[in-house]
Recover the amino acids of this structure.
């Protein structure tokens, strides 16, 4: 696969263009579905980029929308072809959050709020080996190995010299104090967190218990932003059986405001780094 072809992003861009063509035609998704004898949910999934789009789908939709410009049709057909290629993560088999990985791989910046655990991009191998089976207790050993490998591979994005990810993380104190694996694992994890927080493109802030009520108490979330203006920002909310992706401008704006409040309430970067280091020492003392 060409390194500059991200199938997830291609599907999003293609879906946005197909939605634009439908709206220019003044048709509803239900009307299009009736014309093509398919379900309305299929049209919606094609437009939101959550479903693979075939060249036949593009051809049929362009026919319904009466697109006469062959250059537009050819361009959309090529995007459909690119969107069916495989990203690096497909080599690991069926990964439940593969859509998110595709977006994360292409993102220019990522803002994360976590209340109970460290974000995957900043986990040590020891922490990952302990937290994954803890959160997915019936995971088969081979699947556990694959998820650990995927998590470590994702971290290459943080230090990619060509496309460094601008990462901003706000953590509740609970994520630092919860003993995942052992106190020794937590000491190693938090020492690594201090180290990575010194990188110029990574910011880590802590929300101590004494902050009291804060904007993140309704749940964890991430905000992904992209360099290409054609790619709208996405709010990602992880679920047990399914994940939620919010792309409407109003939704993204609300979560962006929430994140600004979290950043304002949290300790600044320097104080957070010291807080993390002190907590790492507490784990070291507890480990004996």
């Amino acid at each position: 696969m060409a390194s500059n072809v991200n199938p997830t992003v291609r599907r999003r861009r293609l879906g946005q263009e197909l939605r634009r063509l439908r709206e220019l035609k003044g048709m509803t998704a239900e009307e299009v579905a009736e014309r093509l004898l398919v379900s309305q949910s299929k049209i919606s999934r094609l437009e939101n980029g959550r479903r693979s789009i075939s060249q036949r789908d593009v051809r049929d939709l362009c026919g319904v929308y009466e697109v006469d410009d062959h250059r537009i049709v050819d361009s959309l057909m090529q995007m459909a072809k690119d969107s069916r290629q495989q990203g690096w993560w497909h080599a690991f088999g069926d990964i439940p959050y593969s859509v998110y990985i595709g977006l994360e791989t292409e993102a220019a910046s990522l803002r994360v709020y976590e209340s109970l655990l460290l974000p995957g991009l900043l986990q040590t191998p020891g922490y990952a080996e302990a937290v994954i089976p803890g959160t997915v207790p019936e995971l088969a050993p081979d699947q556990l190995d694959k998820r650990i490998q995927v998590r470590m591979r994702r971290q290459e994005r943080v230090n990619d010299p060509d496309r460094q990810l601008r990462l901003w993380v706000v953590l509740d104190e609970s994520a630092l104090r919860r003993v995942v694996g052992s106190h020794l694992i937590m000491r190693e994890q938090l020492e690594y967190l201090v180290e990575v927080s010194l990188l110029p493109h990574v910011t880590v802030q802590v929300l101590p218990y004494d902050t009291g009520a804060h904007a993140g108490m309704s749940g964890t979330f991430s905000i992904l932003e992209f360099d290409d203006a054609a790619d709208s920002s996405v709010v990602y909310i992880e679920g047990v059986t399914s994940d939620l992706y919010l792309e409407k401008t109003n939704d993204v704006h609300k979560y962006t405001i929430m994140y600004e409040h979290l950043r304002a309430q949290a300790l600044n970067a320097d104080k957070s780094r010291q807080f993390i280091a002190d907590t790492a020492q507490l784990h070291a003392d507890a480990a004996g």
About this structure: The chain has two domains: 9-83, 88-287. Residues 30 and 40 are 5 Å apart (CA to CA). The first helix runs from residue 7 to 25. Strands lie at 109-114, 166-172, 202-207, 221-225, 234-237, 244-246.
